[in-house]
Amino acid sequence: MPRLSDHPPRLTAAALAAVLMAALLVLLPGAPAQAAPVLLSQGRPVTASSQENGGTPASAAVDGDNATRWSSQFADPQWIQVDLGAPAQLSQVVLRWETAYAKAYRIELSADGTSWSTAYSTTTATGGVGTHNITGTARYVRVYGTQRATEWGYSLYEFQVFGTSGGGPTLPGGGDLGPNVIVFDPSTPNIQGRLDEVFRQQESAQFGAGRYQFLFKPGTYNGLNAQIGFYTSISGLGLSPDDTTINGDVTVDAGWFGGNATQNFWRSAENLALNPVNGTDRWAVSQAAPFRRMHVKGGLNLAPDGFGWASGGYIADSKVDGQVGNYSQQQWYTRDSAIGSWGNGVWNQVFSGVQGAPAQSFPNPPYTTLDTTPVSREKPFLYLDGSEYKVFVPAKRVNARGTSWGNGAPQGGSLPLSRFYVVKPGTTAATMNQALDQGLNLLFTPGVYHVDQTLRVNRADTVVLGLGLATLVPDNGVTAMKVADVDGVRLAGFLIDAGPVDSPSLLEVGPAGTTTDHAANPTTVQDVFIRVGGAGPGRTDVGMVINNHDTIVDHTWIWRADHGDGVGWETNRADYGFRVNGDDVLATGLFVEHFNKYDVQWNGERGRTVFYQNEKAYDAPNQAAIQNGSTKGYAAYKVADSVTVHEGWGLGSYCYYNVDPTIRQDHGFQAPVRPGVKFHDLLVVSLGGKGQYEHVINTTGAPTSGTSTTPSTVVSFP
């Protein structure tokens, strides 16, 4: 390269004067420096009037990737709008159109997302890259297309908004995952020792404060037995389960409880391949213990050693090459999976979209089998893309059968960790809400979080993901979390524990009275568990309320505690467990237990439930305490009299009135008698004769009697 001169260049008189003037200006006070325009829109919450299909979401237009795109349906008009998180001074909008571009469109600005002003408009656009210099202050920016240039919809690779933020502190995305997320790679020393250390602490800590997440980087691990205790999750960090292989076991057993697995709650396994040492892995769990995206290269035993009692459970998006041995499991739900075979059934085993599932045969054996799952979308999960953490957000599937990952890469999109606020113990609810308002998603690291104000999820496609059964506790009687009337929110992997002051509810999805259709991009609630009492006194009027239409609730356990601390008919009072007001809501894997009145109230139209497990409240002091007018007891599952269409498959309710065994329950299920209201494969059981049912549903079905715990069943209703 050319050598610089050893001598400074000579300055002309004019140049010298300019230099001197510049030096003087440095010494003089002046206007503050102006920040250079920056890209404000990337990764921000974005919504659109429509999308062509699941592979072209609105979020693809602000992801910084020119290979992904948003595309609309084939109609005029259409719009896409981005929320910048706070008012900003805008200077430029860049639109990178795909072949299907807009001939006529407007760029509009808004302070509140409701009232809009036009910053730019054209009726003669030619596609390509449109760069538009604009002026104005706004939080929301919208591209409003009024005329398409092609027969297709509107399609944008990138929608970029530049400007300067309005000032004030902003929260950073990303960062480390904290001390209770324990990450291994195949070269990590003493992995078994670390697994055993956590298990010793968590094995019997049913109501303890410890929370742990094990993450295994892709690779092969030999000779491990990961025993999983309370509030412990184990996951692989590959995009596919087969990216992370353990030549060994992931084990849940019940030695801590004398071989009884009916209290093996609150733990999970996800996204791993296992080669069990003796050919069969043991996963002896009960409620709130999901087994997701797992590949067991052998068999899976769902019973504890010695075949003691068990009351689980849930499998989804998994492949078990050998037999799933149900053995002593009273009930189980398996969804969108592949199994070699299934062995045994006690009361209620339900399958939807499961390759290799046993044929429909309820009640003997008690198998309810649906060929496909009506609508499903797998749970978001953390994975490594090279050295970068990302969260994969799976796409919606309709009439799914088999795993989402068995035929190549799963369908969906990825969010970098930089688009998440990483929540750590001690974080306040105000800070969490600030992060949500900024447009960040939330990733809860393992811990217990007291919230003194409601967490408000107001943006479409927000992901709230918990690691290690992160737990929210509402203080001062607030609702822990509310979701707005928006598309595509994903709530997954956390526990809400009622506080001692009565809350009106613990989780609400959507506002009351909404009429918005969310069918194209529904909200999903997955592995979100509700607890009232047990860890201490807790009270709420209702556990979970679903107002938004089309919501999918995929595996929840909503539990009013029957044991632990703070337990009593009035001490942990909670009249209602799960209330559905929205239309077209689907529940897959619904567990609701022990509420003082109705465990499930379904008021919305066209609701569907695939698998339901219930126990009525053990601790009712007498018949009068549960009397519902002239009806003996409150149904475990009540469909409102106004409903015209509803359907359920594989639903069971059990009673164990141990305080007053003479209590009679008129029925487990109550529904209007209409052609559109249908139930398949219902059962009620008296556990050891502690209380009895007069009927199964309404006045249909034989009464239970005696102490034999023999179910009374109804195959079809009406």
Keywords:
16-stranded parallel β-sheet; 718 residues; Jelly Rolls; mainly beta; twelve-stranded mixed β-sheet
Give an overview in words:
This protein is mostly beta strands and 718 residues long. It has a domain at 38-165: Jelly Rolls (Sandwich). The chain is 6% helix and 43% strand. The strands form seven sheets. It has a 16-stranded parallel sheet that branches. Strands 30, 31, 32, 34, 36, 38, 40, 42, 44, 46, 49 and 51 form a twelve-stranded mixed sheet that branches. Strands 1, 2, 3, 4, 5, 6, 7 and 8 form an eight-stranded antiparallel sheet that branches. Strand 30, helix 3 and strand 31 form a beta-alpha-beta unit. The radius of gyration is 28 Å and the shape is globular. The chain starts with 12 loop residues before the first helix and ends with a strand.
Q: How many DSSP E strands?
A: 51
- Beta percentage is 35-45%
Count of separate DSSP helical elements: 4
CATH class of the domain at 38-165: Mainly Beta
Q: In one word, what is the shape?
A: globular
CATH topology (level 3) name of the domain at 38-165: Jelly Rolls
Q: Radius of gyration, Cα only, in angstroms?
A: 28 Å
Distance between the termini: 89 Å
Q: What can be said about the biggest beta sheet?
A: 16 strands, parallel
* Mean pLDDT figure: 93
Structural class: mainly beta
Secondary-structure arrangement, i.e. CATH architecture of the domain at 38-165: Sandwich
| Low-pLDDT stretches | 1-35
InterPro entries: FA58C, Galactose-bd-like_sf, Pectin_lyas_fold, SACTE_4363
Protein name: Discoidin domain-containing protein
Keywords: Signal
Region (Disordered): 699-718
